[in-house]
Design goal:
mainly beta; 20 strands; 6-stranded mixed β-sheet
Length: 333
């Protein structure tokens, strides 16, 4: 055998070995946005607003009750609503900006780019409601108060998982977008049509991050390497400080490497997000979230899996989530 032929064979073997090594690394790594098995089942949705101290709730600004159900949201809501409660979810991201009554939600896809590393692209998913096939939960409620009230998330408010050890519940988010307010006798059609614009932190959009103190060992390892580009402060377990993350604020056509999407280096498609309330996994105390004015207030509620969260990785996909939401006006409010 000639030396030239031997070198060629050795080169081919080296190339094959390198490709196999790259494949093994890609398979072994965990990434945000789920690069495999994207199904997240919604095991249950419980929405309760405790109507006391002069507070009432409705899904059509006309029929007022003490508690609304999933059926009220899907069946008894007003005509023309954009409510959606899908049976499965996929990760999305937002920075809380509301335009024409809808919060900008972006569906991301992580796939190998030209260099072989995973890159993120994203497209807008609002305001077209998709009923039972959307990628996140969104619905309108109306609150009627006989005076200004500071509402709180009770200790019954939580997001749990059918496989808590996988940690998907740690990537969940809930937002409340206040779209308008008027007198108690405002015609239902008028209240239904409120579409106030706003942004997170300006008094119109409020973001709740449940389980903000908890991370799995897989998520911590991912945060400390591939995803965050070396954020060594992320630890596994509970009792951790909330992690800074950057939400997607617009469509991303040209892929951004996943190592840059959550460390402030990914360009102008990302904005740092500061939740209004970050609570721990035990939810051991009621937490103030937003204020409603006297009269009728329209609120659009969003529930989703935040793709930019460190806990949104492959190992967490394929599980189920249960959203429990209970708001109340404390005594003496």
């Amino acid at each position: 055998m000639s030396k030239k032929s031997s070198k060629r064979k050795a080169s081919i073997k080296s190339s094959i070995l390198l490709l196999l090594l790259i494949a093994i690394l890609l398979i072994a790594s965990t990434y945000a946005w789920f690069t495999a098995n994207k199904t997240v089942t919604i095991s249950s949705l419980n929405v309760n607003v405790e109507a006391k101290n002069g507070l009432q709730i409705s899904t059509d600004a006309q029929n007022w009750k003490a508690v609304i159900s999933k059926e009220d949201i899907t069946t008894n809501a007003y005509t023309g609503n954009k409510n959606q409660i899908p049976t499965t979810m996929e990760p999305v991201s937002t920075v809380g900006t509301v335009t024409d009554g809808f919060m900008g939600m972006f569906y991301g896809t992580a796939a190998p780019g030209d260099t072989g590393s995973y890159e993120l692209t994203a497209k807008a998913t609002e305001p077209e409601a998709q009923g039972a096939t959307g990628k996140f939960i969104a619905f309108d409620i109306f609150l009627k108060a006989d005076k200004e009230m500071q509402l709180s998330l009770t200790t019954n408010s939580k997001v749990t998982s059918t496989a808590p050890e996988k940690g998907l519940q740690n990537a969940s988010r809930v937002a409340f977008c206040l779209l308008g307010n008027g007198e108690a006798d405002t015609p239902p059609a008028t209240a239904q049509g409120w579409k106030k614009a706003g942004t997170l932190g300006d008094g119109t959009t409020y973001l709740w991050e449940p389980n903000a103190d908890s991370h799995t060992s897989v998520a911590a390892a991912s945060a400390n390497s591939t995803y965050y580009g070396g954020l060594s402060t992320v630890k596994a377990g509970t009792g951790q400080a909330p992690i800074t993350y950057y939400g997607v604020n617009k469509a991303i056509v040209d892929g951004v490497p996943l190592s840059q999407v959550n460390n402030g280096k990914g360009g102008d498609a990302f904005t740092q997000v500061t939740p209004t309330a970050s609570t721990n996994a035990t939810m051991d105390a009621a937490t103030q979230i937003f204020t409603v004015q006297q009269g009728i207030t329209k609120v659009r509620v969003y529930m989703w899996v935040e793709g930019q969260d460190v806990d949104c990785d492959n190992s967490a996909s394929g599980t189920g989530l249960t959203f429990d939401l209970q708001l109340e006006a404390p005594e003496g409010n």
